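The instructor's notes for this session suggest beginning with a concrete chain rather than abstract definitions. Hand out the sequence below and ask the class to guess, before any prediction is shown, which regions might be ordered.
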Amino acid sequence: MTVNERLYHSGLMDEFDLALKNNKDKAKLILELLKVDKLSIDKIVK
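After discussion, reveal the predicted structure:
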């Protein structure tokens, strides 16, 4: 499952988009909770 699919199915898409703009640590936490690997998280959250 892609990261976007994980976000959509978890209902966290909007929360993640907001966190990506305003709170990088929260965005990373959301991805960690969705079991996204660290390398991918680092690429997504710059």
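Then share the key points. The CA atoms of residues 18 and 27 lie 8 Å apart. The mean pLDDT is 97.
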